[in-house]
Amino acid sequence: MEEAIEEKLPLINAHAHAAMVAFRGAGEDLPLDKWLKDVIWPLEAKMINPDFVYEQTKIAIDEMRKNGIEAFMDMYFFEDSVARACEEKKMPVVLGEGLIDLKGEDVFNKDLERTIMLLEKYKSHPFIKSSVAPHSPYTVNESNLIKTKKIAREYNCPYQIHVSETKKEFEESFDRYGLSPVEYLERIGVLDDKTVLVHCVYLTDKDISIIAKNNCKIVHCPVSNLKLGCGIAPINKLIDAGVIVALGTDGSASCDNLDIKEAGRLSSLLQKGINCDPTLIPKKEIIKMMTINGMRALQIESVVGKTIKEIEEKIEKAY
Ligand SMILES: [Zn+2]
Q1: What is the rounded CA–CA span in Å between residue 223 and residue 267?
Q2: Of 44, 226, 305, 317, which has the highest C-beta tally within 10 A?
Q3: Which stretch of DSSP H or E encloses residue 313?
Q4: Is 301 buried (19+), middle (13-18) or exposed (0-12) by CB count in 10 A?
Q5: Concatenated DSSP letters for 73-138?
Q6: How much distance in Å is there from the Cα of 178 to the middle of ligand 1?
């Protein structure tokens, strides 16, 4: 039998917290807020430092490569260590120093300075680039979200943020603002074609048209969403609305394997199954999600010497 096309194309992991490979298996079977507050955040407070992130990211890169992944977008802490690991392993990456202001403005401002340092340092690098990465609308306040988007616009770089990951987040946003998380982000002016919305499990039809109108990119992380019991993102509706949907693993603690083929297969099966429609998310669409849509989310024109156009032509020829 001929080798499957996805075995020959460079795959993109559009959302990772690579160094979390160290926490694989930590806090199994917990809901997201409990998992973060009781397990992950205390572990991170105790363990992470620049060397830890460097060493663990190298392990994650080896695992991603083994699974055919040739570029990824990261969101974590000490991203200069992620850059060091990627430089050494010659792995293309979009860095994202995770920004949270829950621990106070001082911590936030320091991380923001680090973000700007990374944007400056890697603006001409051949395969390392940086993004602006506020963690979510519920962990970064309105003025800081606006401030971070202004920086992203100055550097013309991706702006990645977790959005509408859980029902709780979705409902609390209505309680707080009378708006869905996506409506809120639109109101404060941070949505555009460089904005990468990660998860989007809970979306109204209005949210979908807002995302399409603003040309935002979506990163779907089906394994993480299932493992944390968050739900299933309506990616068939997003794709129908013309939105570019890429795939991510999320961190190893919530997805186990850094495997985009697994994410692709699952994303298609889930939509076919829950909608009782085997025509949804055809193979060609999955291959695009695993490859060129990821490149578009990362805003990279080529990977391992192959351009988006060349890869797209190969996919069109195969299907
Ligand atoms: Zn994530």
Answers
A1: 9
A2: 44
A3: helix 308-318
A4: exposed
A5: EE-BS-HHHHHHHHHHHT--EEE-BEE--TT-HHHHHHHHHHHHHHHHHTTT-SSEEE-BEE--TT
A6: 25
Instruction: Tell me the CA–centroid distance for residue 156 and ligand 1, in Å.
Output: 22
Determine the distance separating the centroid of ligand 1 and the alpha carbon of 251, expressed in angstroms.
6
* Residue 159 parent element (H or E): strand 159-163
Closest CA to 144 of 106, 178, 175, 117: 106
Rounded CA gap, 112 and 2, in Å?
Answer: 48
Query: Could you give the C-alpha distances from 319 to 14, 30, 236, 262, 281, in angstroms and in order?
Result: 24, 40, 19, 20, 13
What is the pLDDT at residue 149? 98
Find the 17 Cα to ligand 1 centroid distance in Å: 6
Report CA(230)–ligand 1 centroid distance (Å): 13
Q: Provide the token pair at 183.
A: 């409506």
The total of other beta-carbon atoms located within 10 Å of residue 25's CB is 8
pLDDT tens readout for residues 154-173: 999 999 999 999 999 999 99
AA identity, residue 99:
L
User: Tokens 């570019």, residue?
Assistant: 244
Supply 222's token pair.
Answer: 């089906």
Cα separation, 225 vs 101, in Å, equals 24
Determine the distance separating the centroid of ligand 1 and the alpha carbon of 252, expressed in angstroms. Answer: 10
For residue 259, the model assigns a pLDDT of 96
In the reported structure, the alpha carbon of residue 250 is separated from the centroid of ligand 1 by a whole-number distance in angstroms of: 5
Residue 2 CA to ligand 1 center (angstroms) comes to: 35
Structural contact between residues 265 and 287, judged by C-beta atoms closer than 8 angstroms: no
Write the pLDDT tens digit of every residue in 224-276: 999 989 999 999 999 999 999 999 999 887 788 899 999 999 999 999 999 99
Spell out the domains of the chain, with CATH numbers in brackets.
Answer: 8-318 (3.20.20.140)
What's the confidence (pLDDT) of residue 2? 58
C-alpha to C-alpha distance for 160 and 94, rounded to whole angstroms: 10
